[in-house]
Amino acid sequence: MTSAGILQIVVFFALILVFTKPLGAYMARVFEGQRTFMHPVLRWLEVLTYKATGVREDVEQRWTSYAASLLSFSFFGFLLVYFIQRAQGYLPFNPQNFGTANVTPDLAFNTAASFLTNTNWQSYSGESTLSYFAQMAALTVQNFISAAAGLAVAIAVVRGFARHEAKTLGNFWVDVTRATLYVLLPISIVAALFLCSQGVIQNLKPSTVVTTVEGATQTIAQGPVASQEAIKLLGTNGGGFFGANSAHPFENPSPVTNFVEMFLLLTIAAALTYTFGRMVGDTRQGWAIFAAFTVMFVIGVFVCYGFEQAGNPILAKLGLETSATAGQTGGNMEGKEVRFGVVNSTLFATITTDTSCGAVNAMHDSFLPIAGLVPLLNMMTDIVIFGGVGAGLYGILIYCIIAVFIAGLMVGRTPEYLGKKLEQKEVKMAMLAIIATSACILVFSAITTQAGFTPKGYWNPPGAATANTGNNGPHGLSEIIYSYTSATGNNGSAFGGLNPNTPWYNFTLGLAMLIGRFLFLIPILAAAGSLAAKKKVPVTSGTFPTHGPLFVGLLVGTVVIIAVLTYFPAVSLGPVVEHYLMHSGKLFSAILLGS
Known about the structure:
This protein is mainly α. 62% of the residues lie in helices and 2% in strands.
């Protein structure tokens, strides 16, 4: 690692820390229905939205009604995205004349499930598949509402911890409206205008055909990019307008835009920890969660950066210089943009997999094995290291329940968290959420590998020799595990060697996204409803404090141990084996033989 690289990481995280409290306090005021500086500008639109939709602002819902509203809202969004894709040939703003042939039924299902669940996994390249209308009316709109839904659920869960002897968790429709109008929309507008000023395009022009210096013909795709770019990052969605995502110069043209895009990725997730502390009446609780996030984030980013900066040992053995010198940055530059370099590529990769975004500015498939393991492990923690917009907070609260439960077992005392006794229902719901996601990842990965679906999506009968159509061996296994981990964790990033646009991958990955979203989200809503109805337990000398270093260490340990115990056998056959093969000089023969 270089001193310049470390300084960039420190400066970035310091900026996140500076914005955590003011933005967190602002969101607490918004969701508590208090007046903010944005109300003179947007309150009329909020009221108009309630009148147009028949929503009563003063009526709250039980957790069951809240969950039912979420599911109905999501189902409608799924149908809308699906049919817009299938009908794009008959809709306006389609200068490339894309039709139904570009989006098959299985791909439309996968994409609709993807943007519904805030995953934004893309089995296609946007510039050659979807019309501008589909990009705007289906994908960009869904970027807003899926992020708003996740934020709403997080606030409902916080109310479950904050309230006492209450039957309701708020109103889903009110929370979604406020999340969209007061949080996502204003910041996205400012971010989109800034990105436009830095060279990110925003137009409705058809692709431009030009003649290169060499005399060849090149097609340059265009479109409404900046508007989608802003919310894909702020909402931790991740779907790129172009297939190259944030590595494309029209999406992310410079180190300045790269820094801003990373900031957008992390800012709401970080600020929600302060929102949590403010709403439960003890900001120390929020800072404890922020500290746990920080510990895991720092470990991940420096492991990833360290291995990538060290360079490829195979190239070093061939006599090539891989260390940083006065004349070069060194490190492993395969799959990275020169304008970003190693540090900004690995920092982006860590942030995007910590926050369930999935946007990429480098190809994770080209990372060295242990560096590539970091994004994978980030997602295997159920993406609770900061996490997505809302999803990270309600995800880490599941782990808080388990951590406090473990602490209670250690001392033989009924566990308590924020003045609530944690009993059978809450612990069962927390475990159900974690088991559902881990089972989804491992079962689908196992079926895919054993049934003969290779990393390129082709099928070979079980027992037959695997055709050398993609990366076989440990790296091919890593690609498959990564895809189902990304889908189930609602992240959306991928190891680039996988060809997922096949009926099998489109269907199973789409199903994994739905399982990862709703079988993780609904149990925590049920637990929140149960907690809201409980009486507050007075603090005694035997109460385990949940705002100090001991709790932070316990929480981090719980997250890490659960992930390691669950996934170690799988990752040991993928990135870990690949790492040792690379250092033993046997990697190329292992790939060739598929062993």
